[in-house]
Amino acid sequence: MATKQIIHGIFSDEVPLLEACKKLRTSGIRIKDVFTPFPVHGIDPIVGVPRTRIAICAFIYGITGLSLATLMMWYMMISDWPNDIGGKPNWNYYVNIPAFIPISFEATVFCAAHGMSLTYLLRCWLVPGAKAKNPDPRTTDDKFMIYLELNEEQSKKADEILRSTGAEEVNYKGTITIEPKY
Amino acid sequence: MHAESQIREPLILGNKTYRNITDDIIAPIEGKANRLWYILFTISVLGFMWGIGCLSYTIGVGIGAWGSNNGVDWAWDITNFVWWIGIGHAGTLISAVLLLFRQKWRMAINRSAEAMTIFAVLCAAIFVTLHTGRPWLDYMLFPLPNQFGSLWPNFNSPLLWDVFAVSTYATVSIVFWYIGLIPDFAMIRDRVVKPKMKKAYALLSFGWGGNVRHWSRFEEVSLVLAGLSTPLVFSVHSIVSFDFATSVVPGWHTTIFPPYFVSGAVFSGFAMVLTLMLVVRKVYKLEAYITIKHVEYMNIVIIVTGSIVGVAYLTELFVAWYSGVEWEQYAFLNRATGPMAWSYWAMMTCNVISPQLFWFKKLRTNLVFTFVLSIVVNIGMWFERFVIIVPTLCRTYLPSTWNTYSPTFIDVGIFVGTIGMFFTLFLLYSRTFPVIAQAELKSILKSSGEEHKKAAANHAHH
């Protein structure tokens, strides 16, 4: 069992924020999270956030949409009820493929876009009624916050770094007890 | 930090801070509406109500209530549909294509342009729903298992492609818009004090916190959605043009239609964005964010797309002559010199000649002139669709069926109703939603803000 101190380092600009993040990392302090009012570019590698794989999901959803649309059109137009439209009979899918391209495309986009958006919302747990995830409401306006959970020794070091890099406030928000993982 | 060339004009005027941006965007939401808003809202709602009346009448007695006749099957309906869906295209173009091209000026206008897209597509949806004659059977457009044996919609038909294209477009636009709105709703949630408002925006903001992982995913999702929406927006209006181009009607059966329709759509959409944004920036005092430079950029898009449309009109005439097909030649001769020639020349004046005035810098940076011209362009684009559809259908292959067309009270009523609905929705939106994507705007303040640019210039000289 370990008791950890929760620290909020508040900045009013992204430049000192990035510097503080860099210094904290180089002195071996783990940054739990950073809350910003807008996407700060270049912060991901500093904080240690790997690149999101959500675009790969979009690709897979797109392929799924394409396959489903193809299957649907093949079943309805070729297998279940083949029609002869304007002297162009629907005997097989291959010869009729030009007519099926628009809907194949639309279905690909439909599934890729909606699948990815849903994945994004669920992965970030952005759902109606979810609790606000920012501990300090000012971080959606004009403040930037480094959120730390540290033991006593590291807390002192972090406090020093935060203040030296220009944090406006360093707030101690109590402690949490972390159960060891077995 | 990304530095921007000093030659580029600033996109955010004045000495703004992050807090100022928050304050300016939230002002219309926290504040009370002024008298102008109430006047506009009343007019719009009245128009909307009239439209609902005419719409109900049409559903009650059938589409014979319109001015449609033997040749002109759908009166104004398809004209209005294409007009509205075309207007919608600018929103997606601004938010998706300009994002891919890294055009930062989009950030001041993308939110409202996307709102415009969604409202315009809703108006268009009314017309497609209605044109089937029995809208309560419209579910048959979708490939549902049904009680008529294994009867499926015809996937070889461009009309069915349209069903898929428009529904994909509408839903993807809404999702794209909403994902961008979440961080801004969170900002409002954290700012407002009235408990009811706080609750409402807390619900709308889905619990957004703005941490690193969420922003990183947010940016990736926006980029991929932009990549998907870009071909989508081109496909939608191409497919709308296939409705005409794959038919065997002279004047419609042309291969130039897809690019011609897409550029026409962007043309009319940008005009509508200008109409709306020129009012929004004035009423909500957003002149520092939607600057003269933004207006100029949009006017440049209008020159480009307007010129493409002009070239397309001339190409159509040339190809009709060069093809040697008499029906094709007559179709165009009839448009330009027949009984409805006035509509053809109205279209030519509004769409081909008027945007060329924007070559003069004085005119394209003049707000009053831009406002007037944006309305002229939209009138012209309505006439374009009218010219393509109505005069052509008045002169079919069989001369004994030739006739003319005039709209009824109901035709006009439904059209005015959709305009009323569009402005009602837009006015409600502008009072409750953040009209500018403030989170995105904050991210360019340091590189494109006026004071920051000046500071950077001074720094470089020392």
Please, could you describe this protein's structure?
The complex is a heterodimer of chains A (182) and B (462). Chain A is α+β, with helices and mostly antiparallel strands. Chain A folds into two domains: 2-37 and 142-178, Alpha-Beta Plaits (2-Layer Sandwich), CATH 3.30.70.260; 54-123, no CATH class. Chain A is 47% helix and 19% strand. Chain A contains five helices and six strands, in the order E-H-E-H-H-E-E-H-E-H-E. Chain A has a four-stranded antiparallel beta sheet with strand order 2-5-1-6. A two-stranded antiparallel ribbon of chain A has the order 3-4. In chain A, helix 3 (54-80) runs antiparallel to helix 4 (97-123). Chain A is elongated. The termini of chain A are close together. By secondary structure, chain B is mainly α. Chain B has one domain (18-142, 153-453): Formate dehydrogenase/DMSO reductase fold (Up-down Bundle), CATH 1.20.1630. Chain B has helices spanning 18-30, 35-61, 77-100, 110-131, 158-191, 195-204, 212-245, 257-283, 292-323, 326-337, 341-353, 361-364, 367-394, 409-432, 438-443, 445-448, 450-461. Classes of the chains: A alpha+beta (182), B mainly alpha (462). Chains A and B meet through strand 2, helix 2, helix 3 and helix 4 of A and helix 1, helix 5, helix 7 and helix 15 of B.
